[in-house]
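Summary for the funding panel

The consortium committed to producing paired sequence-structure records for every protein in the target list. Below we show the first two records in order, beginning with the earlier of the two.
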Amino acid sequence: MRLGIFGGTFDPVHYGHLLLAEQCREQCRLDEIWFIPVGIPPHKPKPGIAAAKARAEMLELAVAGHESFRVDRREIERSEPCYTVDTLREFRKEDPSRELYFVMGADSLNDFPTWREPVRILDLARLAVVNRGAAANPDLGPLRERFGDRVTDRIEFVTIPGVEISASDIRLRVRERRSIRFMTPRAVECYIETHRLYCSDG
């Protein structure tokens, strides 16, 4: 089984996330993609992030009906900061036969050497590195100098259309009482309205 691991805050999930996941599934020939909402992000402050339960529930609404998409809550159940290498170790321990692909944006590749145990991450999973629009793929030269030529075999580039949708813009629009229609699935939009997420008076 070729399994894609897609982590993030998903605050909230939107069509950009879903398009990214579907293109990774298709271009990397993945059997499934599991969305993993983070509980306590190690590189982002916790204040201001919607409750983990709400983010997971919005994800489940967004992927409902897609047989290859699944939401995994393991990270939001942890009481300590979540690191990619620890989550990948869990997946490998649960089923060593799975071929893991970790989904990440091309802009994150420059920071990859600063992540916890980057060499171990490369051992545990291939990197599905997503590039938007007509932008050139990142230069792997610095990574090869750091980790050797094996990096080339552990990275697969995925190109997706340059859709400019961001979670931060959706949150701002909600606070300003502007439309978010067609930026996120209707079920997620209704969830945000019902639970008064991201409202300044919420």
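The next record, for a separate protein in the list, is shown here:
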Amino acid sequence: MPTVIFGSGILGRAIAAGLVARGEPPPIVLGRPPTGRHLAADVAGADLAFEASRADAVVGNIEVALSAGCRRLVVATTGWLDERASVDDLLRSYAASAVVAPSFSLGIALFLRMVEVATGLFGRLDGYDPYVVEWHRREKLDRPSGTALEIARRVLAAHPTKTRLAATAGAPAPDELEVVSIRAGASPGLHLVGFDAPGESVELRLTARDRSPYVTGALAAADWLRRRPRSPGIHAFDEVVDDLLAGRDGASQKRRAVAGVAG
């Protein structure tokens, strides 16, 4: 059965190339529809769909995929989370499952866990003020990025005194977390979390060199959905990462690798 990719931009094309590189048939890649909305016939027969288009198209694309019979989705588009609850309800009504993440980079997934630990440690000490900086290509529309918002959410959850994001103007209040967005050049993504004290600064930084980490994670999420039936609704990428860390899919990955060598 074919795989469908909503979005013919940089990420959509990279996912398509990743599927072909590992021996899967070329997927159906759907660009922006001339009528404003795809038709169910465009994705008929697809067993899995990747969403890598635009925030304002996500809900409509998911509706089209579900109406066409697709029950597995990997959603890599950001900027639509105000619709998260309604999308979760929609998936459940179709008994469908989706892995949703602001970033499918495995490095980011582990980086987020490191941020939680670091925030818990530095938050116990006076004088270490946390902050978040993210830098993406000039054309990226959402700011802060979905990943930066997830980083901020985890800092706020782990810090004893920070309770909200800083306003866009004026000096931040003591309980506010400063989050800075840069949109310049062609950077595929940089995320930095720092803890600044009068005499020193400590920083955690992840810099993407290209989009291959996002493709690797998106394909891992697709494999996770296909491996066995998952409960309906939205699943966090952390569930996929937990299985990878536990080695629960290591044997199947090894078998695929051996089969590829033997072939």
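Regarding this second record: The longest helix spans residues 106-122. The chain has two domains: 3-104+212-262, 106-207.
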